[in-house]
């Protein structure tokens, strides 16, 4: 028998049908309302790989060092390929299809869900690691089953098993095939409190299919029900989207919730009662609190899944969490997403009753760790310790990421997060730059946040003062509009003779940057586009070809150039140190350097590899050909005129006319500051101060070293002297000057630069407005002084 029907299965069949299958079978057997279906057993998967004789090769392929990311990727690819390319034996094909035809008259839309045999063990939340497909029909059922099998070998799954000490060959996978419920409303429910185990049921509900809640696409309503007296505390959320089945294609699509339902309560008292009864029956059946996915369709309540809650903690910290921030212990893999935030708000509304709007009474407010306030704002949320990429999945909306240092592939999670805390780094580190551009408050360089803060603990982050405090000091923000936040409120932009521009590192920030009303982009960092490909340029080209790489660059720059057109966008050629490249696929080939900051980066790398550099220049040429005459080219880390002549020659060879286009250099080393006159003779249009590097190289202070962060001073007299001299020389030679380092956002620096006669200042997104005003104030004072 390749399949078992749900009513033939009980909890003891875990080995045969996996955690999900066993749970659904058990629930069906207990008379609970589970949609009908069957399970393609784990034994079937096993005999599939064994009879095709791919098993040995499969397990050998995944026996790799999982910390070696390219080996891990290759292992996952090979293992999946083996499964996906092995055909189904005829008998098996027929048995699965015949079973399908018995579900809902053979025309049913079914859900096809992986059910691994190591899933849902009490102390290992494997949940959600393997594939699930919705609205599947006969046509693609077999393919989906095979894809579920293959999903046992995603990079993430291989990595996770190795970390948890599971033997790859001992983990099998079954596949549940179950009739879809075309839900009008659905959600999740904790039958007891997920941190303390108290008899408090927490229900989350939204319109349409349940994935909208589970995936975090929607903020659901939150109902906290005291099981003893059935009292209900309701928090109705604004539900903007819902997932529904598209009538024509049968696929799940996201739709806007109609206006009259957006702020309406999803479940009424009678439905809460029915869910409560159901929840109590399930919990009694298993004799342990459950995390249940439920749906309501045609007036009937269905149970789609039930798992034991693995986060209940009997320790004292759980009791603390209960009084301060109830949902601190909820693990996002359990299916609660926004709920951890909304549950916290709902729960604490009792204790915090009467507290003022910033909720100051709900947290103790003691300092836990401190560091550099690198992106302004104060937020509260549950800390999520991220030590490896896999941990990113547990970061839900409103959480606070706590990590050693952020990396390019963390950007999607950084966007969801309410705040960011790092052990390492200074004001110009990746974490600091990206969080500022995203408008997410951040504290960097704490040295010890990942060891001091506990996962799930609710903390308050103060991105101005650089502190992380205990407890919830501010209410979670309902919805932030990062673009609106930076849009000038007053209709009249301060008119200044000195241009005020904005820095952009991640193309995703372009819209927000343009909304500031800045006079252009003073620095667009190309390397972030490349880092986000997750492969080194060489690797990307090897796999996708030169043209694909050039297209990536063109599209990345174009997005920003479009947003600002016709305002200028000064785009810098690649400048990533080898240690950042090493984290990418293909990065193993990067040279090992004692000090990457003094190493193979910027123009020196580009001139050393003109073949690779040519792709960047070709991207510029194509942009000019497309009419983006607002794009300017800037070369990083030049030292002297020789660097400039070589770069200029390569530009010409690439078909770019240096006389027609605006191009220039960054002043980031004392050598370049001292050589600016010769560089002016070489034909540069502008020189832009990269004060992050100019400061580190002038003062010998590693900009990313938190131990010397207090010595990193862009306003140091020696740095200012170099800058002042360069401005003077450039004015004599009709070369524009600018600043694009972090210091351009400091009012004191703006004051100094305007007095010296700089042509433009480029600031961080959040600082543009203040810099505009500061520049205007200084300019007016200069004017006044001149007539007095
Ligand atoms: C700088 O050095 O000031 C600069 C803007 O470049 P980056 O921070 O990318 O090194
Ligand atoms: Mg620099």
Write the layout of secondary structure elements.
Blueprint: E1 3-5, H1 14-29, E2 37-40, H2 42-51, H3 55-61, H4 69-84, H5 90-102, E3 110-116, E4 132-136, H6 138-150, H7 155-164, E5 173-179, E6 185-190, E7 200-207, H8 211-214, E8 221-226, E9 232-235, E10 241-245, E11 252-256, H9 259-262, H10 269-286, E12 290-297, E13 300-308, H11 316-324, H12 338-351, E14 367-370, E15 372-375, E16 378-386, E17 400-403, H13 411-416, E18 419-422, H14 430-438, E19 442-444, H15 449-452, E20 458-462, E21 467-470, H16 482-486, E22 499-504, H17 510-515, E23 521-525, H18 527-531, H19 537-544, H20 546-564, E24 569-572, H21 578-582, H22 602-608, H23 610-625, E25 631-635, H24 641-653, E26 663-667, H25 670-674, H26 676-681, E27 686-689, H27 691-699, H28 717-732, E28 736-739, H29 747-756, E29 760-763, H30 768-787
Parallel strand pairs: 16-17, 17-18, 18-19, 22-23, 22-29, 23-24, 24-25, 25-26, 26-27, 27-28, 28-29
Antiparallel strand pairs: 1-2, 2-5, 3-4, 3-5, 6-7, 6-12, 7-8, 8-9, 10-11, 12-13, 14-21, 15-19, 16-20, 20-21
The chain binds phosphoenolpyruvate (PEP) and magnesium ion.
Question: Summed up, what is this model?
Answer:
The chain is of the alpha/beta class and 788 residues long. Magnesium ion binds next to α27.
């Amino acid at each position: 028998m390749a399949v078992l029907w749900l009513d033939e299965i009980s909890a003891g069949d875990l080995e045969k049908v996996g955690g999900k299958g066993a749970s659904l079978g058990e629930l069906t057997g207990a008379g609970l309302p589970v949609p009908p279906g069957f399970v393609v057993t784990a034994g079937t998967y096993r005999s599939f790989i064994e009879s095709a004789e791919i098993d040995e090769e499969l397990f050998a392929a995944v026996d790799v060092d999982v910390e070696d990311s390219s080996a891990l990727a290759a292992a996952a690819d090979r293992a999946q390929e083996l499964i996906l390319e092995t055909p189904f034996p005829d008998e098996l094909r027929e048995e699965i299809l015949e079973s399908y035809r018995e579900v809902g008259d053979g025309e049913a839309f079914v859900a096809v869900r992986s059910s691994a045999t190591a899933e849902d063990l009490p102390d290992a939340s494997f949940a959600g690691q393997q594939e699930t497909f919705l609205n599947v029909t006969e046509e693609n059922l077999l393919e989906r089953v095979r894809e579920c099998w293959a999903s046992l070998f995603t990079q993430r799954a291989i990595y996770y098993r190795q970390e948890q000490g599971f033997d790859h060959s001992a983990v099998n996978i079954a596949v549940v095939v179950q009739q879809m419920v075309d839900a009008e409303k659905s959600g999740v429910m904790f039958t007891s409190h997920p941190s303390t185990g108290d008899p408090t049921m927490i229900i989350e509900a939204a319109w349409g299919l349940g994935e909208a809640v589970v995936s975090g696409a929607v903020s659901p309503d939150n109902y906290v029900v005291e099981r003893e007296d059935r009292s209900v505390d309701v928090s109705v959320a604004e539900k903007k989207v819902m997932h529904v089945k598209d009538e024509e294609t049968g696929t799940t699509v996201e739709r806007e919730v109609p206006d009259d339902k957006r702020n309406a309560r999803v479940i009424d008292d009678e439905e809460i009662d029915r869910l409560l009864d159901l929840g109590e029956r399930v919990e009694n059946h298993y004799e342990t609190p459950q995390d249940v996915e439920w749906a309501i369709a045609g007036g009937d309540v269905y149970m789609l899944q039930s798992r034991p809650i693995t986060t209940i903690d009997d320790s004292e910290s759980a009791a603390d969490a209960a009084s301060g921030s109830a949902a601190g212990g909820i693990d996002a893999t359990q299916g609660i997403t926004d709920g951890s935030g909304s549950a916290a708000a709902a729960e604490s509304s009792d204790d915090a009753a009467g507290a003022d709007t910033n909720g100051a009474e709900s947290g103790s407010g003691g300092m836990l760790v401190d560091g550099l306030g690198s992106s302004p704002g104060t937020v509260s949320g549950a800390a999520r310790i991220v030590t490896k990429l896999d941990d990113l999945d547990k970061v839900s909306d409103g959480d606070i990421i706590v990590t050693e240092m952020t990396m390019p592939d963390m950007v999607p999670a950084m966007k969801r997060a309410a705040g960011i805390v790092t052990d390492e780094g200074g004001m110009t580190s990746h974490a600091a730059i990206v969080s500022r551009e995203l408008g997410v408050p951040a504290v960097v360089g704490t040295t010890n946040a990942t060891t001091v803060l506990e996962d799930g603990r609710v903390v308050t982050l103060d991105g101005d003062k650089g502190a992380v405090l205990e407890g919830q000091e501010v209410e979670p923000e309902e919805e932030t509009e990062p673009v609106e936040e930076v849009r000038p409120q007053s209709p009249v932009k301060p008119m200044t003779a000195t241009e005020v521009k904005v820095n952009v590192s991640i193309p995703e920030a372009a819209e927000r940057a343009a909304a500031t009303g800045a006079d252009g982009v003073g620095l667009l960092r190309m390397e972030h586009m490349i880092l986000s490909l997750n492969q080194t340029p060489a690797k990307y080209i090897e796999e996708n070809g030169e043209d694909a790489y050039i297209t990536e660059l063109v599209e990345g720059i174009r997005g920003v150039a479009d947003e600002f057109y016709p305002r200028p966008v000064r785009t810098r050629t690649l400048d990533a140190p080898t240690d950042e490249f090493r984290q990418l696929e293909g990065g193993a080939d990067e040279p090992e350097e004692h000090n990457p900051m003094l190493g193979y980066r910027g123009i020196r790398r580009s001139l050393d590899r003109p073949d690779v550099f040519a792709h960047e220049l070709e991207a510029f040429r194509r942009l000019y050909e497309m009419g983006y005459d607002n794009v300017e080219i800037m070369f990083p880390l030049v030292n002297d005129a020789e660097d400039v002549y070589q770069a200029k020659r390569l530009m010409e060879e690439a078909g770019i006319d240096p006389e027609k286009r605006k191009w220039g250099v960054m002043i980031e080393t004392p050598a370049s500051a001292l050589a600016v006159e010769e560089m002016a003779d070489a034909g540069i249009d502008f020189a832009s101060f990269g004060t992050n590097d100019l400061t580190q190289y002038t003062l010998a202070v590693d900009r990313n070293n938190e131990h010397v962060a207090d010595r990193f001073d862009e306003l140091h007299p020696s740095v200012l002297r170099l800058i002042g001299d360069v401005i003077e020389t450039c004015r004599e030679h009709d070369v524009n000057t600018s600043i694009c380092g972090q210091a351009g956002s400091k009012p004191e620096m703006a004051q100094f630069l305007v007095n010296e006669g700089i042509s433009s200042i480029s600031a961080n997104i959040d600082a543009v407005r203040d810099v505009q005003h500061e520049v205007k104030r200084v300019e007016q004072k200069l004017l006044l002084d001149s007539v007095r």
